[in-house]
Please model this.
Amino acid sequence: MIIFIRDNECFEPRVKNYLGYFDSHIIDYHVIAWNRNGSAEKNNNITFYEQKAEYGKRLLNIPKKIGWMFFVMKEIIKNRKECKVIHACDIDAILPALLIGKLLKKKVIFDIFDWISSLTGKGIVYKFVEFLQNYCYKHSDAVILCEEERKAQAKADNKNVLIVPNIPAFKFDYDEETSAIIKKDLEKYEYVVSYVGVFDHDRGLENLLAVVSENTNIKLNIAGFGVLDEMIRDYAEKYSNITCWGRVDYTVGQTIQKNSSIIAAMYHLTSPLHKYAAPNKYYESLALSVPMLTTENTLVGSKVAKYDTGFLLDETEASLNEFFSQANLHQQIANKKDNCYNTWKNVYEDYYESYMKNKYMVFIEK
Model:
């Protein structure tokens, strides 16, 4: 049995990819997860830690994270007889997994969704967290990264590094009601821009909202949650060409993105982690045949440039205004839609299934 550990409600596409693969290939697994906002649906295959904890609180959540780690250790011990492999996602999962896993002589995989660098905060605590990450990187039986370039973030070595990109591993479903609403936008506005994700700083959302509010020929459909929620809802109330959908399920999110001219996915380098951001949005853009608008000098920007599947901008509001003012933008979007489709079909459509079968499972079954 594989014990899979994630310190949230397991809502991310990357997590769903793994669990969907396990289900479809009848692989025995059990999930230990954290129902942080109380919204998780009960599932016989998932054991939830039920202590609520707000996202974004960082150091203030340390006492709750300690409780979570003890919960994880207890659950691993409870399932020790059936467990063969522990697959732990990020630092809050790998610390208890590695401690107990080594004592029980289990194979431990460190899956790094997000690398927490000491650059993201000042002080000894952040440096200590970075030290712990590097220690776990070195001493885990294998490490999973979502892109080859992310090896540069680590200050340690591991002989078993697997690369499992954030590629959608399932067919998209669309919500007909949402689709009907947004198709009216496509008829009414010159450009329809979508953003589905975290409402956070350093994502270019402030610039995007400001530009759209001043250009009545552009419609913005924005969905998600986060610290900028109040500001985004204020914009949506004030401007008819901005719609805030709030937190939506994956099907609605994909419907919003599919029915748009451009998917916005800016990763400003004012956040040090964004240089290596590897969002599933890049692969969704290809699968949905909708070009991406992102930030130059980033990992995701280099991937967009490689196959010419989107647009690269700097981090200023002026660059956004200039972008939407181009005389030939409609033709550029049409060309890049074709590039998205061809890249998905020829490069990535069958990539995930092949990689999981020939790399991940081969390591699991050693």
User: Anything to note?
Assistant: DSSP finds 13 helices and 13 strands in the chain.
